[in-house]
Design a protein that fits this description.
heterodimer, A: alpha+beta, Ubiquitin-like (UB roll), DNA polymerase, domain 1, 5-stranded mixed beta sheet, 5 helices, 36% helix, 15% strand, B: alpha+beta, Aldehyde Oxidoreductase, domain 4, 7-stranded mixed beta sheet
Chain lengths: 164, 762
Amino acid sequence: MSGIKVNTKINGDPVEFMCEPDETLLDVLRNRLNLTGAKEGCSTGDCGACSVTVDGRLTCSCLVLGAEAEGHNIGTIEGMAHGEELHPLQKKFIEHAALQCGVCTPGFLIAAKSLLDKNPDPTETEIRFGLAGNLCRCTGYDKIVRAVQDAAKDMRKSNSRKGA
Amino acid sequence: MPLDNAPDSKRKYNVVGTRPLRPDGIDKVTGRAKFGADATAPGQLVGRILRSPHAHAKIRSIDTSKAEKLAGVKAVITRDDFPDHTDGDSGLYDTMYNIMAREKALYEGHAVAAVAATTPAIARQALKLIKVDYEVLPHVTDVDDAMKSNAPVLNNKMFTDGVDPKPKKASNVARRFEFGHGDVEAGFKRADIIVERSFKTEATHQGYIEPHAALASMSPDGSAELWCCTQGHYMVRDVCARILGIDISRLRVTQSEIGGGFGGKTTVFIEPVALALSRKANRPVKVVMTRDEVFKATGPTSATSMDIKIGVTKDGLITAADGTFRYTGGPFAGCSPAEFGAMSAFAQFHLDNVRAIGYDVLCNRPKTISYRAPGAPMANFAVESVIEELAHKLGMAPIDFRIKNAAREGTRSSYGPVYGQIGLGATLEAAKNHPHFKAPLGPNQGRGMAAGFWFNFGGQSCVSLNIPIDGTITVSVGSPDIGGSRASMCMMVAEELGIGYDQVRAIIADTSSLGHNDVTDGSRTTFATGMACILAARDAIKKLCARAAATWGIPEDAVTWEKGYAKPAGANAGNFQPLSLKEIAAASPGTGGPIAGHHEYSADGAGVSFATHICDIEIDQETGASKIVRYTVIQDAGKAVHPSYVEGQFQGGAVQGIGWALNEEYIYGKDGRLQNAGFLDYRIPVCSDLPMIDTMILEIPNPGHPYGVRGVGETSIVPPLAAIANAVAAATGVRFTQLPMSPPRILKGIEDAKASGAKKAA
């Protein structure tokens, strides 16, 4: 097989990599770029553990080829915190005990951020459907939903302060 | 346990019972935490496994020559690479047989060969070049079919244990169990009403989101390192070393963060294979399962078939209870939890006459492995369904019927022991008084409840606690942290030492750094490893007091420990300024060197656990679709160390039970192949399926733990199956005796009931 050269941006940084035509974006992130925050739970797009954003759109990175990342902006869990400052969702997940084993957590955080970017004030039902593509086997989702509700509230407050 | 371990009911806690942030939280929300598949080693190869496409087949021969010649292939292994070192240990032999098939492939997905290659593509290609000559044999996957006299027998050396006389004919029934007391027949004679029903449940998978992963590095001199996700790295070490025929101490196992287990990671699958590949290739080898492999080749729980008969008097006293529980174990004996099913089935009742018979049954399915309260949920589904039906026949509120017959302190349990202080009655009363219980129901909605039991377990733990010169604490434990246990361990150490939670850090030690720790199972970690943390802290306190005594020049027993300080025990001891932990630690290099506390033991006294669940469900009468609209878990935790994570255990178990009741099942084709080996077709509950799961923690102290802690992890999966079945029966008027109650099955039940109603009317 011949390698394909790909130019992309990951978490805002320019990244250039070589990959095989059959490698998924998840393979590239994990095996070539050592960004192992995205997890492989199924490789069929059913569990959401590999969630990333591609140009801001929530995507299962196991369903995208590495080569398809050419020219796109990829967002991963490694880019969610700003320096020492955790994203409000990250803080609230810890505060609410919204993770037990934590393997689904990066995917949930990416999906939740993607939801709140589009809808800063979601109802419980909107949160539940917004996160329905991510499987968690430990928590029963209760504390995840509460963490997202609480984070959304904080983010709305800080946005309205910024607005004023 | 010494008597001073009994809980002090007046004790006021400073740290236990609060809700601090977990110490591994930041790693887990930033993607930094390293799970099984996240590790790499220099020069590592990719390991992949070839699996049987047949449910049951003799393996005549395996030709690996073409695969070995493929460029980039560094090792190919088969059964020939696992010479038998098991020395008559049949359980270990079966484990070895399960990780690599020998004479026969015993289920679809059974490993038959493995390769290590430089790239995934080459490894995949190599698997295709391995030629296995199979002689396909008749197979059986259904438990009732497997027990028939004409069933294909998996193991012709299997003669049922536990029956007298021992049968002369081989069968798939590995063992018969019987538990109970009293005279069941006499009890039924005194009954005014008897309900007798048969039930079936399908196998479900633990469904952890992280597939099994292992990174092995083994040298030709027999020393080896292994990184893997497991519920027990000491078990992995011992089992792998024995299968490979090396000294246990030569193998060091480091456990990764673990992405869920629920009992499914309490054995080995790919770990010995990765080690054997690494030994042959003399390079590190990483093996990661696909989801398809996880479903086909790792532990589901049993499929079951059960008969229940319970008799009551007109005033609602149970006179006799009888049950038969047939559980699939996969292809090996002793793997099904039939014994636990039979033991736990009637454990929530005070019964004079009870009998429970269990059968451990072989079939061509993956080797059954523990799944959260193994064996109990299915038995509870059957028994608590009959209980509900009896209550209706009696014209008695089901909650009152349960309270009237509930096990209590002094009850001789259906499985033998006499109960001490238990929390069942308290959970039932709390349910009766809960606002949920009185809330009005909407159209097409029904409410159900069930009470459930789990034994809980103690077992072996070893803890080491070190105090560096700044007086902060490192506690090394050997129990993997699956759901926040590091936080609980730190909390208990902080509580004992009388210091802040932020002064304690817990790490999970590898197998070479600490003594043996049992697998994380039986809800044992917070109880048993937690108690070892408490006792290690008490050991350290003794040493801290001794240093203070030496500093002051007074006897050791004249020093007491209070809120993080060593103090003279009384006026007679002398007048000395209390010494803080930090001061004693800072002086330690000059007062005798490092200070550490240890504790190693096998813990007894795990208190049994009970829960009562209430469920409201809405059924679409046109489609059979169901929706849980409200759910409440009430459970006795003994003492909740970190209430948020206790609630999380209640909620997680309840939702796994919801999946089991409504959707999850192993679907086999006539060819014995699993037809739904993926998360799309094996549907676990998703966020939009569910409401919030309300929880209520009761604290009835366990006399066997200094704080009264009981294990909380498993009981929560026991009542949901029956609670939901009872709710569905209330919503539809139809009693479902088969799980899962998927929409097609519910719809058929409703339509059949309508048709038979119409017939009656005609």
